[in-house]
């Protein structure tokens, strides 16, 4: 656990679970020995290493969290599954691929990856774990809040940043969902054609 907090001073619960393989109940027991929990604000839902204060570190903008609630989709579970066995992604070619979740993919389930559906309907992402250009663009900004201190609501970022990033994540998931549905509909049509051919 010490190595984890040397890598990064703050983590979401899901990230800790993915990085360590520990179950939630074990994490709840262990974490108070290494970190304190931030319940709300720019770094809400993060476990923060003792001695580190993101409000005093402008580079901590990369760890600020954005909560995203996704629309219902049959391939996005309401709650985390005990064991994820498959994933749905859309490749740039538009083809669908369903495959067993590899160890590396399971370890990155706390990140937002374009073209891949989230692991649960409500996610908390640290901005550095959002693989979209808009997140990188905002993190690259040199923004100084009034008084050069972290804003209680927006942290080290402009007020519009989180909404813009959240909207782009939702738009990307919507595109992915629509593509998956379209590909599945095409495949269903092909299967029906095959059955008709066999009956003929």
From TrEMBL:
GO molecular function: RNA polymerase III type 1 promoter sequence-specific DNA binding; RNA polymerase III type 2 promoter sequence-specific DNA binding
Record InterPro entries: TF_IIIC_su-5_HTH (IPR019136), TF_IIIC_Tfc1/Sfc1 (IPR040454)
UniProt-listed GO biological process terms: transcription initiation at RNA polymerase III promoter
Coiled coil location: none
GO cellular component term, pick one: transcription factor TFIIIC complex
Segments traversing the membrane: none
Ranges of residues in domain Transcription factor IIIC subunit 5 HTH: 1-68
Name of the protein this chain belongs to: Transcription factor IIIC subunit 5 HTH domain-containing protein
Protein species of origin: Plectus sambesii
Phylogenetic placement of the source organism: Eukaryota, Metazoa, Ecdysozoa, Nematoda, Chromadorea
């Amino acid at each position: 656990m010490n190595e984890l907090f040397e890598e990064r001073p703050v983590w979401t619960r899901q990230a800790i679970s993915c990085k360590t393989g520990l179950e939630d109940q074990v994490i709840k027991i262990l974490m108070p020995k290494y970190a304190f929990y931030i319940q709300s604000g720019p770094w809400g839902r993060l476990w923060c290493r003792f001695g580190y204060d993101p409000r005093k570190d402008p580079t901590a903008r990369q760890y600020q969290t954005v909560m995203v609630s996704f629309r219902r989709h049959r391939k996005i579970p309401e709650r985390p599954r005990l064991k994820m066995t498959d994933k749905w992604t859309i490749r740039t070619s538009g083809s669908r691929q369903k495959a067993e979740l590899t160890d590396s993919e399971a370890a990155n389930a706390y990140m937002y990856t374009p073209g891949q559906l989230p692991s649960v309907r409500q996610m908390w992402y640290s901005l550095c774990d959002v693989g979209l250009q808009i997140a990188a663009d905002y993190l690259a900004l040199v923004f100084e809040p009034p008084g050069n201190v972290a804003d209680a609501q927006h942290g080290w970022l402009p007020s519009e940043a989180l909404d813009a990033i959240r909207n782009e994540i939702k738009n990307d998931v919507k595109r992915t969902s629509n593509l998956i549905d379209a590909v599945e509909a095409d495949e269903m049509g092909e299967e029906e054609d095959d059955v008709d051919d066999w009956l003929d």
